[in-house]
Each structure stands twice: as C-alpha cells, then as structure tokens.
Design a protein that fits this description.
410 residues, mainly alpha, two-stranded antiparallel sheet, 10 helices, elongated
Length: 410
C-alpha cells in the first residue's frame, strides 16, 4: 500500500532471506570422537571443536586415518609419494609446495574427488578463456562432499542404486538438492537410514542441506563412523595394551632393580653427589656473599664520595647561578649604559654638525669682516690722503689769504 511520502512497502515475498551466523553446540559424542582422533594423532591437538572444517583439513584427516587404520586393500588409499616416477598435479590451486598436497593428490588419484586426472567437469573458465581445475582448499567443506568422500571408502558400488532410490521412500525432503555428480556410494548411505553416516553425524533431521558447512567436531564423528569404528576401537585397545605391557615391564624392571639394590645404591650415590654438590654450592654461595658484602662496602664508599661530589657540584652550581645573575645584571646595566651612550653620541653628533655649520657661518662672516676691514683701510688711506691734500690746500689758501691781507694792508 502507498505511504504518505509516496514510497511503497516491499512485499514479504520480495524480501531476501538473510543468513545468521550462530555458534554450533558440541555434544558429548562429537567431543569423544574428536578426543579419540587426537589421541591417535589423526587430528592436531590445537583443533577446536566448534570451528568450521575446511576442505584441505578434512582431506588430510581422511587420508591419514585411512592409511593408518585401513587394513582392507580394496578401501585403502595409496599416497602418491609411494608411486615411482613423476606425479601430475590434480588441481591448479594445489601445487607440490602446498602442505596438504599429498592428501589431496591421493584422493584425486584414487578417484574419490573429481580432478584433472579424471578429466571430469570440475573446472572453471577464466576471463581469458583458459580452463582451470581448482580444489579450493581453504573453503569450508559441504555436507555432501564430506559424506560423499567418506562413503566412497565405506561402501562398494552396487548397480541400480539410482533406481532403488526412486522406488524406496527416502527420509530427506531435499534429496533433489543433492548434486547429480554425487557418487552412488553417497546414495547408498542415504538409503542406509539410521545406520548411515549422515544420521550419526547430523542426527535425526528431515533435511540433508547438502551445501551447508559443518564443524570439525562433526567431521570427527564422520571420520569415526562406519567400518572405521571397529578399527579405531581395535587401535585404542592395542594402544592401551601396549601401554599396560609397558607399565608391567617398567614395574618388573623396577622390582628387579629393587631386589638387586641397584636403585638404592644408585640413589645413595646420587644423594652423595648432590650433597657434595650442595656443600660446594654453599661454599660458593658464602664466597659470593662475602664478595657481595665487599662490593657493597666499596659501593657505599663510592656512593658517599659521589654524594660529596654531588654536594660540591651543587654548591658550584649555586655559585654559577649567582654569577650568572650578576652577569645578567651587569649585562643589563651595560645595555642601558650603551643605549644612553648611543643616545649621547647621537646628540653629540647633532651638536657637532650644528657647530660645524656655525663655524662655517663664522668663517663666512670673518671673511666678510676682513673684506670690510680691507675696504675701511683703503678708505682710511684715501681719507688720509684727502686730508693731507686738504691741509696742503688750506695752507696754500692761508698763505694766499695772508698775502692778500698784506697786499690790502700795503
């Protein structure tokens, strides 16, 4: 139905189912199977039961268990390392340097998994057109592959198994989801009902879910199912018998040594050696303790001298700090006096320039006065000349007047 904002609600049929990752609980049977395989050194000790199992891990454990416990040559897998001559790699993504190459190559050469050797259609085409056969060792193994590989080592091929499945009622609802490449042995295990490996691994269920991954504990249950159950039981009994016989032999040897007194003699010798070693160690300990005491005394003296030197250096540091303060004060005073000196020098330079200007003016005035004095001197000499001339003229005029006077009188 349309909403107010114009958007439409997606119908339930159009919504995609999302997968949710949940932690898988591990039951006691799975833990027991995993513990047994760890005891037999089939599965590594650091394997966790709740982790998902990869393809390369299951291939390694399956081949290791088959080569260790399988006694029937019809179901035994021969590792490729026992073949003479060169070996053709069954997959392009599992090279010879791969750590699980031998196990994966053994399954491929035994025909349990489709590979390049069999020429089956387990290939993928790349973008450039090249065809590659891949095993995908790091992917999680599916339920179908796990049961398929194991079933091929458990059952013998019986013709007409497909027709038998079509006639019989199968307990699983999703049998059609099983890949058509599945082996007849897998179909035989499906028809085995409650005795099948599928029931022992996954319990009572109406769905097989062939593409679903599984845990390492479930893989351990699959490995210990079928004909391997008796072989594993026999191997455990053999190991326990060997352990018991070893313990009995050890107890017999111990009793015999006790009867002979060798253990007591050996123990007394060891005790004497340890006692002698203890005395030597004690002597060395006392000597080391004395050396440590002497070294402690030396270190204490050195520490006292160091403290004295530190005190003297502290005094020198205080003196240097005082001298530094005085030098800073003197430098500040010198800076202020230098600024005053620079200011006074600037003022003296100004006064000097003014005095030079005044001196130049005085020199100019002096030259002017000297010129005026020279002009006055010239004027004075001229005036004196004129005065002498006037005196001479007056004298002549006086003489003339007197003469005129005398003439008039006469």
């Amino acid at each position: 139905m349309p909403e107010e904002n114009g958007e439409t609600i997606t119908s339930v049929s159009e919504q995609r189912l999302q997968r949710v990752k949940l932690s898988v609980p591990v039951d006691s049977c799975q833990l027991e199977a995993l513990s047994v395989l760890k005891k037999l050194k089939i599965i590594e000790d650091d394997v966790r039961a709740e982790d998902l199992c990869t393809r390369r891990e299951y291939a390694r454990w399956l081949v290791r268990l088959n080569s260790l416990l399988e006694r029937n040559p019809k179901h035994r897998i021969v590792p490729p390392m026992l073949f003479s001559g060169s070996v053709v790699a069954a997959f392009d993504d599992v090279g010879v340097e791969h750590s699980d190459f031998d196990s994966i190559q053994a399954l491929a050469e035994a025909g349990i998994i489709p590979s390049k050797i069999l020429g089956t259609d387990c290939c993928s085409e790349s973008s450039n057109g090249d065809v590659s056969f891949c095993f995908y060792p790091e992917r999680f193994i599916s339920r179908q592959d796990l049961i398929n590989w194991k079933a091929q080592l458990e059952y013998r091929f019986t013709p007409g198994i497909t027709e038998q499945m079509s006639r019989m009622k199968v307990d699983y609802m999703d049998v059609k989801e099983i890949s058509p490449d599945a082996s007849p042995e897998l179909l035989a295990d499906v028809l085995a009902g409650d005795k099948s490996i599928i029931r022992k691994v996954f319990g009572q269920s109406r769905r097989f879910q062939p593409n679903k991954p599984l845990t390492k504990a479930q893989a351990a249950v699959a490995l210990t199912s079928g004909r391997m159950t008796e072989a594993i039981y026999d191997e455990i009994l053999r190991l326990e018998a060997e352990h018991s016989s070893r313990q009995v032999a050890i107890e017999e040897i111990r009793s015999e040594l006790l009867d002979k007194g060798d253990i007591v003699r050996f123990w007394n010798e060891k005790m004497n050696e340890e006692r002698t070693r203890g005395f030597e160690v004690q002597k060395l300990y006392i000597a080391a303790l004395q050396d440590l005491e002497y070294e402690k005394t030396v270190q204490e003296k050195a520490l006292a001298e160091h403290l004295k030197e530190k005190a003297a250096m502290e005094c020198q540091r205080q003196l240097l700090l005082g001298l530094k303060e005085e030098v800073d004060e003197m430098s500040g005073r010198l800076k202020s006096e230098r600024s005053m000196y620079v200011a006074e020098q600037c003022s003296l330079q100004e006064l000097l320039s003014e005095l030079q200007i005044k001196q130049e003016e005085i020199v100019d005035k002096k030259s002017v006065l000297e010129a005026e004095i020279e002009a006055l001197r010239i004027l004075r000499s001229w005036v004196e000349d004129e005065a002498r001339k006037s005196q001479a003229r007056a004298k002549v005029l006086e003489e003339v007047g007197q003469r005129w006077k005398w003439d008039n009188q006469g």
